[in-house]
Amino acid sequence: MGRIKFAAWLTAQAFQEHPILIPVSIAVLDAIAGFIAQPLADGSKDLNSLEAFAIGALAGTVLLLLLIFAYYWGTAPRRILAVKVDSLSEKLDQIEQQLIVVAQQVMGDPTDLIPVYQECRSEIRESIRKIGNAAESDQLWGFLDRLPSDHWRKEKQTLRDSPWGRDHYGTLDAAYGHVDRLNTASSTRWFKREVREGDDLDFALSDLLEADQALSEQLGDLSFAELAGDGNQLELEEGDELA
Questions:
Q1: For the chain, how many structural domains are there in total?
Q2: Which of 123, 164, 202, 233 could form a disulfide with 148 if both were Cys (CB 3.0 to 4.6 A apart)?
Q3: Structure confidence at residue 242 (pLDDT)
Q4: Which domain holds residue 27?
């Protein structure tokens, strides 16, 4: 019964969607059917030409309606399934959005870490620049100069405790471990600033570059999430490129 009602509803909708095509088609079919029915009037004493034409026209109208109804009745199961799938898809989207809201309420908003990642990346890139210069010149940076790590010291506990930040904590901790190691080595060389084999500058550069890449990818993902969430494009810090 539901299939019949659905097919009837689609038939009615067809008249609304094609307000010109279907009436014109009915008129043409009525005319053809009416002329075809004319011989009935010639062979019957009870029918005149006008009555025979009217019967033929009525039959043409009923035939067209039956054809439209039969088409929608035949395709009704597929159409009903499509409606149910669309409805289910909308419900799943709503559930997904609700889960995202719940996750952000429980775990915090991952975009809150964007400033932390930006500052850490700036420090890491400055360390990469200084270590790279030291590797080329075979001389460490100035005695009073240091590889930056203040922001990391301030925020590393935040990253360790955050469900969103702990994935990159190990990479950053390894990179800043080289920073601390080289700062310690630099502070003990008052006069001879030559790079030593034990400084392992290549190893330090490798881990720092890995951390820089991880932060850049994470910032890209979070920038897209922030843009999709509130329409405000993230303004990345200026001059944040390797020299």
A1: 2
A2: 123
A3: 42
A4: 2-107
